[in-house]
Amino acid sequence: MLFKSERLTYRLWTEDDLEAGLALWGNPEVMKFIEPVLDIEQVKRSIKRGLQHYETYGTQLFAMVLEGKIIGCCGFSFEEEGVFEFGIHIMPDYHNQGYGYEAGRAALEFLSEKGDYKVIAACLPENMASRQLLLKLGFKYHNEIWFDDTNRYESYFELN
Questions:
Q1: Residue 42 bridge partners (DSSP)
Q2: Cα(6)–Cα(48) distance, rounded to whole angstroms?
Q3: How distant is the alpha carbon of residue 151 from its chain centre?
Q4: All structural domains of the chain with their residue ranges
Q5: How far apart are CA 91 and CA 89, in angstroms?
Q6: Given the DSSP bridges, would you call strands 118-123 and 152-159 parallel, antiparallel or unpaired?
Q7: Distance (Å, rounded) from C-alpha 103 to C-alpha 121?
Q8: Is 152:34 a contact under the CB 8 Å cutoff?
Q9: pLDDT tens digits for range 35-85
Q10: Are 51 and 60 contacting, i.e. CB atoms less than 8 angstroms apart?
Q11: pLDDT given for residue 149 in this prediction
């Protein structure tokens, strides 16, 4: 366990979490606003990249654990010097129960203990749940911007 919040613990993903990763990133409901669902090989690569990301930058999209079960992930990806992007994915059975806000607060506190960073986030304009969560966490909406990596416009937020 790297850190915890009221109901959740947060830890690194491991190769033993392949089934939980596939349940999360292979779930069409989880991925509908993010990207196509991942298959087992893509999940393996994602877990491996996350571990490498943690070794290099000290953060990743950490496994969110409730009573021994992974219910999602929350954390950061490195964007450029001094800038991290916030991300969160939660299994549908755990939506609308406050886990997103709880996890977001805990992850932001974890990052703040590592240093003073600019945190950004983006979501599709029609993803109202993510938009509301980001605003509740204190992010400020800036505008819709084009992202070359996703080939689409997304709502862009910053946390100062």
A1: none
A2: 28
A3: 20
A4: 3-117
A5: 7
A6: antiparallel
A7: 15
A8: no
A9: 789 999 999 999 999 999 999 999 999 999 999 999 999 999 999 999 999
A10: yes
A11: 80
What is the distance between the alpha carbons of residues 102 and 130, in angstroms, rounded to a whole number?
14
pLDDT in tens, 100-131: 999 999 999 999 999 999 999 999 999 999 99
Which residues, 6 or more positions from 38, have their beta carbon under 8 angstroms from its beta carbon? Answer: 21, 22, 25, 26, 31, 46
Structure token pair of residue 70? 């992974």
3-117 CATH, one of 3.40.630.30, 3.40.50.1000, 3.40.140.80, 3.40.50.880: 3.40.630.30
Token pair for 10: 């947060």
What are the residues facing 76 on neighbouring strands? Answer: 86
- CA-based angle 123:115:66, to the nearest 5? 55
Q: Which of 11-15, 35-39, 90-94 has the lowest mean pLDDT?
A: 35-39
Residue 90, pLDDT above cutoff 90: yes
CA 67 remoteness from chain centre? 20
Identify the H or E element spanning 139: none
